[in-house]
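Why predict the complex rather than its parts? Because the way molecules touch one another can change local conformation, and only a joint prediction can capture that. The input here totals 404 residues.
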Amino acid sequence: MPRPRVHAPDAVLDAAEELLVERGRAQLTIRVLAERSGASNGSIYHAFGSLETVVGAAWLRRARQFLTLQATAVEQELAAGDGRRAVQAAADAPARLADDDLRAAQLLVALQRDDVLTDAVAAPIADKLRALDTTLVATLRRLARAVWDRGDAATVDVVTVCVVRLPAALLFGEIRTGRVHPHTRAQLAAAVGAVLDCGPPH
Amino acid sequence: MPRPRVHAPDAVLDAAEELLVERGRAQLTIRVLAERSGASNGSIYHAFGSLETVVGAAWLRRARQFLTLQATAVEQELAAGDGRRAVQAAADAPARLADDDLRAAQLLVALQRDDVLTDAVAAPIADKLRALDTTLVATLRRLARAVWDRGDAATVDVVTVCVVRLPAALLFGEIRTGRVHPHTRAQLAAAVGAVLDCGPPH
DNA sequence: ATCATAGTGGAGCGGCCGCTCCACTATGAT
DNA sequence: ATCATAGTGGAGCGGCCGCTCCACTATGAT
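Output of the joint prediction:
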């Protein structure tokens, strides 16, 4: 009964993604997005409600892609029974994503979770973004149990350092420039191993 | 012969520092800075020329403080002849700065070099900021030589990972929240050791 | 043919931004 | 006393922002 869409929402997200990777969040304005995507200001607001919702929805697609890839890699190593290697695989996941789909990795590197999940993100997208936290924490706890037979806060913190902080330090810059060196991945695996060897606080 | 200053430029930098730590760069506007520092819009522009110059000058003070502390720690370990421990000391420098002067560390964590050194920074401050790069690279090369008797790009890159990237990953979040745990410093030392053991690419 | 309605396009509102402009002020030199 | 001048204070300019508003359109149902 209504007029059909002429701008697919996904096409707007694609344009937003390009602009976020090329120019960063601060340069993504509704006017630039309208020009790049071909959709008018009015269409974008009708479909999404706010610019931050567009950013949230674009990020959500890629974060899901990443977590799926990461979970697959983790399950594979856990099936082989090696908790330590599972943590290393989880840490290496951003590098694997960059191999598979550089733009996906570049979007996740351009914008962190807290940059995305702001008050202006519409509830349906915000809820889905928060659901990703639960997924990630579940993976982290699973890894902590695999290494130490414990999934308490202290062990989860150690795994978080290995799987979130160390990859950000070593890989993100190279993903941004488009080339992840094998040597950097080896350094990451070594650093993860060393942090795991420290164990949780006393 | 002229009218004397009623607002010391350092007091404006102090106010800018507070605001940067408390609210971040995006919330630091000339109006907020004028209100907090007590200096008027006109005074601030007369003294600095642009808001980005204020930010640059505030950051410069703290970056110098940090590099001095870091260089002292490095020299001490190099005098003892242990290149590996010198790299670990350099990596630990942000944690030591946080112990000495939390606000200094928080400013450096709130803003990275590239956020500060923009086109709008007045030449005298911009030049001094660029001079810090030279100082840091000299330290990195010195460390590379101490570990491998080489100061080429490949070895300097490894030291950069140890001294710049790993501390950012492990310490910055805790500095932001105001409490650096000893266990985190131990993890950092272990990760630095592991990355050094990898050596430069083949 | 008419109607209800989701979607479209673009003018423009209100607000904040960095910065400019300029009348004015407080000093030391004469 | 007068003057030159570095510094002060604040009004307000021009520009960009996110977002609203609303007349209009293209469709399927009747």
